[in-house]
Prior knowledge:
The chain is of the alpha/beta class. About 45% of the residues lie in helices and about 15% in strands.
Amino acid sequence: MAKDILYVEDDADHAELVLRRLERHALRERVLHVEDGELAMAFLASIGSEGVPPPRLVLLDLRLPRVDGIQVLDHIKSSESLQEIPVVVFTTSAADRDVKEAFAHHANSYVVKPDDALELDQVLGELTHYWLERNVACPA
């Protein structure tokens, strides 16, 4: 089954919270979660082979082991076959330098993960509604 969301997050607690919240929005089965940037890069390399379609959205943490989020973002946005995939940096950092760096590498959006579970639920609902339902994707 094709996955609409590639969720790249190394923190198991954050991942579990987000995945549970996405389940509340009937999206859990549409998410591929990988734990680090290296696994994200391996998945991205498989797109197009054996009928693997690209995700419609990437939720990307910045601080990742092996290959960091900026490197993953840079790979996506510099690849002709991947650059149209919207990437939302979804992280705990609200630091100006992180925001500026993400946008310098062509992030489509930057969202700081809320600490509150209800607010997290609301933010994920808004994000997925916009990017998967309201946003008009670039034609292939």
